[in-house]
Amino acid sequence: MGNISLEILQKNGSLTLKFGGEVTVYTINKYQNSLEIINTSNIKTVELNLEKVTFLDSAGALFLDIFEQDMKQRNLDFVLTCENDKILKTLQLVKNHKRDLVYEIDEKTSVLEKMGKVFYDYFTGFLSFLSFLGEMFITKLRYLKSAKTIRYKEIAYEINDSAIKALGIIIITSFLIGLVVAYQSAYQLKLYGANIFLVDMLGLSIFRELAPLITAIVVAGRSGSSYTAQIGAMKITEELDAMRTMGFDPYRFLVLPRIIALMISMPILIFVADMMGILGGMIVANVDLGISTSLFLDRFNEVISIKHFFVGLVKGPFFAFLIASIGIYRGLMVQNDTQSIGYNTTKSVVEAIFAVIVCDAIFSIMFTNLGI
Amino acid sequence: MIIEVKNLKTIFGKKIVHDGLNLTINENEIYGLLGPSGCGKTTLLKEMIMLQEFHGGDINILGNSLSNISSSNAQKLRQNWGVLFQAGALFSSLSLAENIILPLKEYTKLSDKMIKEIVAFKIDLVGLKQSDAKLYPSEISGGMKKKAALARSLAMDPKLLFLDEPTSGLDPLSAREFDELILKLRSLLGLSIVMVSHDLRSIYDTLDRVAIIDDKKIAYEGSVAGATQIDNKFVKKFFSVKEI
């Protein structure tokens, strides 16, 4: 970056610095290194000679200005030799702008204060989620009263988008889960010669717990996150505000169709997951334990009552509600910057999965106590 | 001559945007690109700053021909210009100061104190308060964002500045301030400035020369005063807007 030169002449109490070449943002660190080693202890005047400088940019001017201030602080006489009008102008420009360096002041906070802040944030976050739920229920009530205003088209679109298109991944995941669970337990069961009990185990675990949970987790990762990103992006581009000003309630146009769509489609997805999980288990039973398909189905019919199937299915709409409402709520929480979309999408998936598992635990306790 | 566009051709699918477009931009001048919406002003600007490929002809910037520039030369060239985007395009995860610091840290070996001085100077130069430096882009107004983005584009002391609608979205007062700032920077830092603008006041006050793009070509190139004289539908409409 250009040729640079610095001549340092020291003569009975006066120091002359002859700068040459380009003094720019790229070169000043080289000048700085040579200036640092100068000893000013027995010097009275400093002369800054810029006659050979070909180009000075604002960073270079700043650098020279700082040097000048530094020399003046040491009570040295300062002389500037320069005839280039352009360079003098740049130097003057730098002098005209005051630069109070603003240093970050570290505010000291105690652990207690930090904890308090975190808990308070969680608390207000929880309150704002409740207010979101409240607003949603009010809108729901208002619009469910008259069937005309329900956005059937949006609901159908969302069912296609978040359920039909998710079928493939749910089929594969649940099939593999059934396969793996059966395969792992087949080995243990074989030890006791209790091969046929694989059917009981598979039926209970897949119908009651595994299929609903796996479906919910896949949907949370797939549809919940996309709700957050979609609505978050709409918020950044002010589309939501535009809708509001035109009298389209976002709750009616965006929130309710998504929630209703997911609540309708979740049981269907769970049903598919049930079938595929059992199919996976059946294949392992056939290959590994020698239980024929007809024997498997006979035993299945005998030991797995229909209530287990419904227990799993009933959870569907509840999980769907949690996933959709958390996803949308997080979308609405997006602030006006791009970071916020990523942050809230992560949060939405994590929170949705957590909520689903808590909800599942509550169901589990409830059903057990009810004797279902 | 700092930029020369020769026989430029741009095609999007079936739509021809530019066909045989020529213009030259001289050193230390403020050059405006004007034209009806959809005529490809912003496309031309993006082609100049290597964000958009063109399909024929050539653009020569600071002695580099963009049609066959090596990636290392392109990288060097990028350090010689600053670009101000329409909405600022400040990095939202960084504070204003950090936005300006980023290129300085990346491209120079300056000491932290020196960088701080440069940032403080640039912030004052564009008319922001030093206390604003700590703020994040989401915490400031549109006008401040433009100023901060300008400070960022000036961080490396570029010779060339590209401005995309610098005064759009600003209130008239801030817009005039911005015009003054641009004029001041041109004379103080010896910048050459290329801008796309629709702001009539800004066009009259700041531009030295103007190019009017219409029908895939340059309909006029020259002084702003001369532009009003030519026979072009867009020009007649555009310059007949009464100032309030």
Give a brief rundown of this model.
The complex is a heterodimer of chains A (about 375) and B (about 240). With about 375 residues, chain A is α/β, with parallel strands linked by helices.
Describe the structure.
The complex is a heterodimer of chains A (372) and B (244). Chain A has 372 residues and is α/β, with parallel strands linked by helices. Chain A has twelve helices and four strands. In chain A, helix 4 crosses helix 9 (250-288) and helix 11 runs antiparallel to helix 12. The model of chain A has no long low-confidence stretch (mean pLDDT 87). Chain B has 244 residues and is an alpha/beta fold. In chain B, the strands form two sheets. A six-stranded mixed sheet of chain B has the order 6-7-8-3-9-10. In chain B, strands 2-1-4-5 form a four-stranded antiparallel sheet, covered by helices on one side. The termini of chain B are far apart. The mean pLDDT of chain B is 86. Classes of the chains: A alpha/beta (372), B alpha/beta (244). At the A-B interface, helix 1, helix 2 and helix 3 of A face helix 4 of B.
Low-confidence blocks of residues of chain A? none
CATH fold annotation of the domain at 1-80 and 160-166 and 191-244 in chain B: Rossmann fold
CATH class of the domain at 1-80 and 160-166 and 191-244 in chain B: Alpha Beta
Order of helices and strands of chain B: EEEHEEHEHHHEHEHEEHH
Residue share in helices of chain A?
over 70%
**Which term fits the overall shape of chain A?**
elongated
Strand order of the largest sheet of chain A: 1-2-3-4
Strand content of chain B: 15-25%
Look at the structure and give the mean pLDDT of chain A: 87
How many domains make up the 3D coordinates of chain A? Answer: 3
Which architecture of the domain at 1-80 and 160-166 and 191-244 in chain B would the CATH scheme give at its second level? Answer: 3-Layer(aba) Sandwich
Q: Which H/E pattern describes the elements of chain A? A: EEHEHEHHHHHHHHHH
- Which structural category do the helix and sheet elements of chain B fall into? alpha/beta
**Class per helix and strand makeup of chain A:** alpha/beta
End-to-end Cα distance of chain A, whole Å, is 80 Å
Assembly type:
heterodimer
Estimate the strand proportion of chain A.
5-15%
